[in-house]
Please model this.
Amino acid sequence: MGFSFLIIAICLVFGAVAAVLSFRPNFASEMTASLRKTETVRKFSPKNTLFIIGPSANHQACRMQRRLLKPAIPALIREDVIVIEVYGSDTPRKNGEPIDWLDPALLRHAIAAEDGFNLIYVDPAGKTRFRSEAPMVTGDILRQARIDIGAPGDAASRPTKSKVLKKLRAA
Model:
């Protein structure tokens, strides 16, 4: 009984496919064309990323961390360190640009930073290098993250690796 039901179901599926193809002979080519037009799936990797996570953008610890980190942002971008800010239910920002497709609650849950202020650095290997629940001075962040920025004079002599830094210089 079960085997005959399976055969009937398979026949119905193939019959439905044949009926659709008979009414729309270009259905297969239309389907492949529409699949090619669709936007590729955006991948998110937290590697080499500094996360600033807080309850709101006006939270005292968040404001202080932004102020402390502001002078080092060009050097961090030059070293291809991504800075992602997540405040409350607001849209997360990656190097100042909004990331509309990223859910802030899901991101907080994934990196176990659901409450209060958190400063987290994930190294290029994908491991959490440090985590702090209080704002940190930029020098301490760089030391714990093991990021060597070098002197400002050295930055002009070596080639830039980041496309974002080129855009900032052009603006």
Observations:
- Strands lie at 49-54, 82-87, 93-94, 97-98, 118-122, 128-132.
- Residues 2-37 form one domain.
- The chain has two domains: 2-37, 49-170.
